[in-house]
Write a structure and sequence with these properties.
Blueprint lengths: L19 H12 L4 H21 L7 H28 L5 H23 L6 H23 L12 H17 L13 H31 L1
Length: 222
C-alpha cells in the first residue's frame, strides 16, 4: 500500500519560493541527496557564527569591520537556509513532521544568537539584545499557540523573522562601511542599539497583532 506523502500545513508565504533560481537550486540540492534538516542546522550554525562575530567587534578595532560583514552574511545565510530547507524537503518528497521540528527549533537558537550577539556588539546594548531575543521567541511562541488552537498562517509583522534579520543586516553593513568618526553614539548607545530598539518595538506590535488575530478567530468559532 502506498504511503500518503506528508504535506506541511502552515508554511510561511515567501515570494522567493516562486523564483526560478531558488526552485532550480532546491531541485539541484534534492537530486544530490542534500538533507533538508541538514540545511536547517547549517542555517543555525551560520547564525551562531554571525552572533559570535558581532559580539567580538568591541575587541578588534578596525578589524571588526570584517566581523560586521560576516555578521550580515551569516544573518542572510540563515534566511536562505530557512527558504531552502522546506523547498528541498518537498522537492525530494521527504517532507515530514520531524522536518517541521527541525525547521522551528534551530530558528529559535538563531534568533537568540544573532540578537544577543548584536547586544554585545559595538554600539549595542546587552539588555536590548536579550529583550529583543525574548520578544523574537515570543512572536514564534504565539504563532505556535495559534496553530495549536487551529489558527494557522500567523505570519503577521511588522517584525517577523525576515524583518528582524533585515534590520540586523542593514545595521551590520552600515557599521562595516561607515567611517568610525561618523558613527552616531549617545551615552554608549549606537547604531546597533537603535536596530535592536526597532526590533523590540516592532516585535511588541507583532505580538499584539498575532494575539488579537487568535482571539478574534477563537471568538468567531465559539
Amino acid at each position: 500500500m502506498a504511503t500518503e506523502q506528508y504535506t506541511p500545513t502552515d508554511r510561511r508565504p515567501i515570494a522567493s519560493r516562486e523564483r526560478p533560481f531558488w526552485q532550480k537550486t532546491a531541485e539541484f540540492l534534492a537530486k544530490r541527496g542534500v538533507s533538508a534538516n541538514g540545511i536547517s542546522i547549517a542555517g543555525m550554525m551560520a547564525a551562531l557564527c554571525a552572533g559570535a562575530c558581532l559580539a567580538a567587534t568591541p575587541y578588534l578595532g578596525e578589524l571588526g569591520r570584517i566581523c560586521w560583514v560576516v555578521g550580515a552574511l551569516g544573518s542572510q545565510l540563515r534566511l536562505i537556509a530557512n527558504l531552502l530547507d522546506g523547498m528541498v524537503a518537498i522537492a525530494a518528497g521527504r517532507a515530514s513532521a520531524v522536518g517541521e521540528l527541525f525547521n522551528e527549533m534551530p530558528d529559535r537558537v538563531s534568533d537568540a544568537a544573532i540578537l544577543i550577539g548584536a547586544g554585545y556588539a559595538v554600539g549595542g546594548n546587552p539588555v536590548a539584545g536579550y529583550v529583543a531575543a525574548c520578544l523574537a521567541i515570543m512572536t514564534a511562541y504565539i504563532r505556535a499557540v495559534g496553530k495549536a488552537s487551529g489558527v494557522t498562517h500567523l505570519f503577521l509583522g511588522p517584525m517577523a523573522k525576515q524583518h528582524r534579520m533585515t534590520v540586523i543586516i542593514v545595521a551590520c553593513l552600515f557599521m562595516a562601511l561607515c567611517p568610525t568618526r561618523w558613527l552616531p553614539s549617545y551615552h554608549g548607545w549606537g547604531v546597533m542599539s537603535a536596530a535592536l530598539l526597532i526590533i523590540i518595538v516592532g516585535a511588541i506590535v507583532t505580538c499584539i497583532r498575532r494575539i488579537s488575530r487568535i482571539a478574534r478567530v477563537l471568538k468567531g468559532n465559539a
